[in-house]
Amino acid sequence: MVRTRKVEPLPVTVLEDIGMQWHTDADGSAYLVPELVEVTQAEAEAYYEAANALYAMFVEAGQHVIDHGRYAELGIDAALVPLIEESWERDDWHLYGRFDLAGGLDGRPIKLIEFNADTPTALYETAIVQWALLRANGLDEAQQFNNLHEMLQESFRCCVVGEGGDFAADYRQEKFLFSSIEGLPEDERTVRYLQQVAHEAGLFTDFCFLHETGFLEGQGVFNRDAQRADFWFKLFPWEDIPAQEPELAPILQSISRVGATRFVNPAYTLLFQSKGMLAILYELFPDSPWLLETRFQPLAGKAQVEKRLFGREGENTRILDAEGRVLAETGGAYGHHPAVWQEYVELPQDAAGQRYQAGVFHACEACGLGFRRGGEILDNLSKFVGHVVV
């Protein structure tokens, strides 16, 4: 059983003062739970080990997809393939991603649910808010698996000079432009937080909304003042560009080809983002202790989860029993994407029957743990729960 510890919540005024406007869900309930999941040191170390091992497996599987041209199986539009291959060949740096994991508590084995490699959120909650909750309640600030803020700084430096490079002399001249969609407070705060981290790392930064960003074929990405960015971070899914901004894909390809502006996260993270990669991982590593059986067709005689190759917040998900009967399902905007079928695994529960899914961020290495709490299918009403290492 999941063990939690009640704590005093952070006042809404404090949350709003630090820019967290999404503290209350649409039904009026608090998004941030005034509790902390109790995690042992051994459990925290197991999450760390699993996330690092899984990242290495994703890299190997990414090379396999590129070598064998398996983009269609992952639902990737052909317009994005040149961008993917260029960013992979150039070894562009992956800034950060988040593994969603079942298990890891109460003796349950850790199992990969999916990897949010391109546009992961819950970043601010994990890096800052749960740490502030610990501090506000007089607990030891070191009692978390959470060095995410520091590792993001290091990851920004690696964007410029690569892993282990000497950035002391020249890296400060690089300009990072950050963009999100106007009118989405959570996305904007996430991006502005990343801008703050990059600034603290010693980089020149700027922010503008996506509709204010300029693109010139073969020349680069530009801010409002027509200044070219060396790096552009966008909290906008790669897979949505061909459908929603079809004219942008060839322009970005021309920019990438000449290296005028580098994209963060790079286009190859779309390989990791696609849930089709879960089936390829299982094909390549069927004996991995961290993988659930996942295939591009329904599993025979097993309880399973049907999920779309691309989707968010649990939309268009179905849980099926071993006979194929639907036990739970959600609607949503992603039903047009093909599906994969993943072996069902029950999430750990607390005394009230609420289920917990771990999120482990990876920036250079596994570096931050947080939890989502909810029902059978975690949707946009699921809650964020911090943790304390006991």
Which key features would you list for this structure?
seven-stranded mixed β-sheet, globular, 19 strands, alpha+beta, 390 residues, 30% helix, 24% strand, 2 domains, five-stranded antiparallel β-sheet
Number of helices: 10
- Which ranges are low-confidence, i.e. pLDDT below 50, for 5 or more consecutive residues? none
Mean pLDDT: 94
Provide the β-strand percentage band.
15-25%
- Largest beta-sheet characterization: 7 strands, mixed
Structurally, the number of domains stands at 2
Shape: globular
How many β-strand runs? Answer: 19
SSE diagram, text form:
Blueprint: E1 4-6, H1 12-17, E2 32-39, H2 41-68, H3 81-89, E3 97-102, E4 111-116, H4 123-136, H5 148-161, E5 175-179, H6 185-200, E6 204-207, E7 214-216, E8 220-222, E9 228-229, E10 231-234, H7 241-244, H8 248-258, E11 262-264, H9 269-273, H10 276-284, E12 294-295, E13 304-308, E14 318-320, E15 326-329, E16 339-343, E17 355-363, E18 365-374, E19 383-389
Parallel strand pairs: 2-19, 5-6, 5-10, 10-11
Antiparallel strand pairs: 1-2, 3-4, 3-17, 7-8, 8-9, 12-16, 13-14, 13-16, 14-15, 17-18, 18-19
Helix pairs in contact: 2-10, 3-8, 5-6
Task: Sum this structure up briefly.
The protein is built from ten helices and 19 strands. By secondary structure, it is α+β, with helices and mostly antiparallel strands. It has two domains: about 5-275 and about 350-390, no CATH class; about 295-345, no CATH class.
